[in-house]
Amino acid sequence: MDTLDIWILVLVGIVLLCQSSWLFIDARSHSRYPWLWGLWGLIQAPTPLIVYWLVVRIDWSKRKRERE
Amino acid sequence: MSRRSGKSILNNCKEDRQIPSHEQQGISDEQEREALFQSLAEEPLNQWDHSIAPDIPSLESISQMISSHKEVVRSRLWRDLLLLWGIGSFIITGLMFVLYSSLQVFLFVQLGTLGAAGLILLRASFRKEGRRKWTH
What we know:
- Chain B: InterPro entries: DUF5345.
- The structure holds 2 protein chains of 2 kinds.
- By secondary structure, chain A is mainly alpha-helical.
- Chain A has 4 helices and no strands.
- Chain A starts with a helix and ends with a helix.
- Chain B is built from 4 helices and no strands.
- Chain B is mainly α.
- Chains A and B meet through helix 1, helix 2 and helix 3 of A and helix 3 and helix 4 of B.
Protein backbone atom coordinates (compact mmCIF):
# COMPACT_ATOMS: atom_id res chain seq x y z
CA MET A 1 0.00 0.00 0.00
CA ASP A 2 1.73 3.19 -1.17
CA THR A 3 1.37 6.81 -0.06
CA LEU A 4 -1.29 7.60 -2.66
CA ASP A 5 -3.49 4.77 -1.41
CA ILE A 6 -3.17 6.05 2.13
CA TRP A 7 -4.09 9.58 1.07
CA ILE A 8 -7.09 8.27 -0.86
CA LEU A 9 -8.22 6.29 2.16
CA VAL A 10 -7.87 9.33 4.42
CA LEU A 11 -9.81 11.45 1.95
CA VAL A 12 -12.56 8.84 1.65
CA GLY A 13 -12.74 8.62 5.44
CA ILE A 14 -13.09 12.41 5.75
CA VAL A 15 -15.78 12.48 3.06
CA LEU A 16 -17.72 9.70 4.78
CA LEU A 17 -17.49 11.41 8.17
CA CYS A 18 -18.63 14.74 6.72
CA GLN A 19 -21.49 13.10 4.86
CA SER A 20 -22.55 11.19 7.93
CA SER A 21 -22.38 14.27 10.16
CA TRP A 22 -24.41 16.36 7.76
CA LEU A 23 -27.03 13.64 7.34
CA PHE A 24 -27.25 13.14 11.09
CA ILE A 25 -27.64 16.86 11.87
CA ASP A 26 -30.17 17.46 9.10
CA ALA A 27 -32.13 14.30 9.88
CA ARG A 28 -32.59 15.46 13.48
CA SER A 29 -34.75 18.29 12.11
CA HIS A 30 -36.49 16.48 9.26
CA SER A 31 -36.64 12.78 9.97
CA ARG A 32 -37.45 10.32 12.74
CA TYR A 33 -34.32 8.25 12.09
CA PRO A 34 -31.22 10.45 12.36
CA TRP A 35 -29.07 7.54 13.55
CA LEU A 36 -30.09 5.45 10.53
CA TRP A 37 -29.01 8.20 8.15
CA GLY A 38 -25.85 8.92 10.10
CA LEU A 39 -24.72 5.30 10.20
CA TRP A 40 -25.63 4.70 6.57
CA GLY A 41 -23.66 7.78 5.62
CA LEU A 42 -20.57 6.21 7.21
CA ILE A 43 -20.73 3.15 5.01
CA GLN A 44 -21.69 4.40 1.55
CA ALA A 45 -21.51 7.55 -0.53
CA PRO A 46 -23.32 9.24 -2.21
CA THR A 47 -26.31 6.83 -2.16
CA PRO A 48 -27.49 7.89 1.34
CA LEU A 49 -27.47 11.54 0.30
CA ILE A 50 -29.51 10.87 -2.83
CA VAL A 51 -32.00 8.63 -1.02
CA TYR A 52 -32.26 11.14 1.86
CA TRP A 53 -33.05 13.92 -0.56
CA LEU A 54 -35.67 11.82 -2.33
CA VAL A 55 -37.29 10.30 0.75
CA VAL A 56 -37.02 13.03 3.39
CA ARG A 57 -36.50 16.41 1.83
CA ILE A 58 -38.76 16.28 -1.21
CA ASP A 59 -42.45 16.64 -0.41
CA TRP A 60 -43.96 14.49 -3.15
CA SER A 61 -47.55 15.17 -2.08
CA LYS A 62 -46.98 18.92 -2.39
CA ARG A 63 -45.47 18.45 -5.85
CA LYS A 64 -48.44 16.34 -6.87
CA ARG A 65 -50.84 19.04 -5.63
CA GLU A 66 -48.93 21.74 -7.53
CA ARG A 67 -49.15 19.72 -10.74
CA GLU A 68 -52.90 19.26 -10.26
CA MET B 1 -55.36 36.67 20.47
CA SER B 2 -56.62 39.42 22.86
CA ARG B 3 -59.16 38.53 25.49
CA ARG B 4 -61.91 41.00 26.01
CA SER B 5 -62.51 41.91 29.65
CA GLY B 6 -65.93 42.24 31.17
CA LYS B 7 -65.49 45.96 31.31
CA SER B 8 -64.61 46.23 27.64
CA ILE B 9 -67.71 44.27 26.69
CA LEU B 10 -69.74 47.07 28.22
CA ASN B 11 -67.87 49.77 26.36
CA ASN B 12 -68.98 49.07 22.78
CA CYS B 13 -68.02 51.53 20.12
CA LYS B 14 -70.94 53.40 18.69
CA GLU B 15 -71.17 54.00 14.98
CA ASP B 16 -70.42 57.49 13.83
CA ARG B 17 -73.77 58.55 12.37
CA GLN B 18 -76.45 61.18 12.74
CA ILE B 19 -79.02 60.05 15.30
CA PRO B 20 -82.68 60.99 14.60
CA SER B 21 -84.57 62.65 17.44
CA HIS B 22 -86.99 59.73 17.92
CA GLU B 23 -84.04 57.49 18.60
CA GLN B 24 -82.41 59.89 21.06
CA GLN B 25 -84.94 58.99 23.80
CA GLY B 26 -84.12 55.32 23.32
CA ILE B 27 -80.42 56.03 23.42
CA SER B 28 -80.68 58.02 26.65
CA ASP B 29 -82.68 55.12 28.21
CA GLU B 30 -80.02 52.77 27.03
CA GLN B 31 -77.31 54.96 28.47
CA GLU B 32 -79.15 55.04 31.80
CA ARG B 33 -79.45 51.25 31.78
CA GLU B 34 -75.80 50.96 30.86
CA ALA B 35 -74.75 53.29 33.66
CA LEU B 36 -76.91 51.36 36.14
CA PHE B 37 -75.48 48.04 34.95
CA GLN B 38 -71.97 49.39 35.22
CA SER B 39 -72.54 50.68 38.73
CA LEU B 40 -73.95 47.29 39.79
CA ALA B 41 -71.73 44.93 37.86
CA GLU B 42 -68.45 46.77 37.34
CA GLU B 43 -66.81 45.67 40.56
CA PRO B 44 -67.81 41.98 40.35
CA LEU B 45 -66.85 41.89 36.68
CA ASN B 46 -63.42 43.33 37.44
CA GLN B 47 -62.94 40.77 40.20
CA TRP B 48 -64.00 37.99 37.86
CA ASP B 49 -61.61 39.30 35.19
CA HIS B 50 -58.68 39.22 37.60
CA SER B 51 -59.61 35.76 38.88
CA ILE B 52 -59.68 34.19 35.41
CA ALA B 53 -56.74 36.13 33.95
CA PRO B 54 -53.88 33.71 33.17
CA ASP B 55 -50.36 34.36 34.41
CA ILE B 56 -48.65 35.93 31.44
CA PRO B 57 -44.93 35.18 31.65
CA SER B 58 -42.54 38.01 31.10
CA LEU B 59 -40.40 38.34 27.99
CA GLU B 60 -37.27 37.69 30.03
CA SER B 61 -38.58 34.42 31.42
CA ILE B 62 -39.58 33.18 27.96
CA SER B 63 -36.18 34.20 26.53
CA GLN B 64 -34.47 32.45 29.43
CA MET B 65 -36.52 29.29 28.85
CA ILE B 66 -35.70 29.28 25.13
CA SER B 67 -31.98 29.91 25.64
CA SER B 68 -31.70 27.21 28.32
CA HIS B 69 -33.52 24.72 26.10
CA LYS B 70 -31.26 25.65 23.16
CA GLU B 71 -28.27 25.00 25.40
CA VAL B 72 -29.62 21.56 26.33
CA VAL B 73 -30.28 20.71 22.67
CA ARG B 74 -26.80 21.93 21.66
CA SER B 75 -25.05 19.84 24.32
CA ARG B 76 -27.16 16.81 23.35
CA LEU B 77 -26.18 17.35 19.67
CA TRP B 78 -22.46 17.49 20.53
CA ARG B 79 -22.77 14.36 22.66
CA ASP B 80 -24.51 12.52 19.80
CA LEU B 81 -22.00 13.80 17.23
CA LEU B 82 -19.02 12.66 19.31
CA LEU B 83 -20.66 9.24 19.68
CA LEU B 84 -21.30 9.12 15.93
CA TRP B 85 -17.68 10.04 15.14
CA GLY B 86 -16.42 7.41 17.58
CA ILE B 87 -18.62 4.71 16.04
CA GLY B 88 -17.78 6.07 12.59
CA SER B 89 -14.03 5.73 13.07
CA PHE B 90 -14.51 2.04 14.00
CA ILE B 91 -16.84 1.40 11.05
CA ILE B 92 -14.63 3.15 8.51
CA THR B 93 -11.49 1.43 9.77
CA GLY B 94 -13.26 -1.94 9.67
CA LEU B 95 -14.55 -1.30 6.15
CA MET B 96 -11.05 -0.43 4.93
CA PHE B 97 -9.66 -3.63 6.41
CA VAL B 98 -12.45 -5.60 4.73
CA LEU B 99 -11.81 -3.83 1.41
CA TYR B 100 -8.12 -4.70 1.47
CA SER B 101 -8.65 -8.26 2.67
CA SER B 102 -11.56 -9.35 0.49
CA LEU B 103 -13.33 -7.36 -2.20
CA GLN B 104 -16.27 -9.80 -2.32
CA VAL B 105 -16.99 -9.40 1.39
CA PHE B 106 -16.78 -5.64 0.99
CA LEU B 107 -19.30 -5.70 -1.86
CA PHE B 108 -21.53 -8.01 0.17
CA VAL B 109 -21.42 -5.56 3.09
CA GLN B 110 -22.26 -2.66 0.81
CA LEU B 111 -25.19 -4.44 -0.83
CA GLY B 112 -26.40 -5.72 2.52
CA THR B 113 -26.33 -2.19 3.95
CA LEU B 114 -28.25 -0.87 0.95
CA GLY B 115 -30.87 -3.60 1.32
CA ALA B 116 -31.20 -3.15 5.08
CA ALA B 117 -31.58 0.61 4.78
CA GLY B 118 -34.19 0.16 2.06
CA LEU B 119 -36.16 -2.31 4.18
CA ILE B 120 -36.09 -0.05 7.23
CA LEU B 121 -37.25 2.95 5.23
CA LEU B 122 -39.97 0.91 3.54
CA ARG B 123 -41.21 -0.35 6.91
CA ALA B 124 -41.06 3.15 8.33
CA SER B 125 -43.10 4.58 5.47
CA PHE B 126 -46.04 2.33 6.41
CA ARG B 127 -46.05 3.38 10.05
CA LYS B 128 -48.15 6.25 11.33
CA GLU B 129 -46.50 9.59 12.09
CA GLY B 130 -45.53 9.82 15.73
CA ARG B 131 -44.89 12.77 17.95
CA ARG B 132 -41.42 14.15 17.40
CA LYS B 133 -39.18 15.64 20.02
CA TRP B 134 -38.13 19.23 19.82
CA THR B 135 -34.61 18.77 18.57
CA HIS B 136 -33.87 22.23 17.18
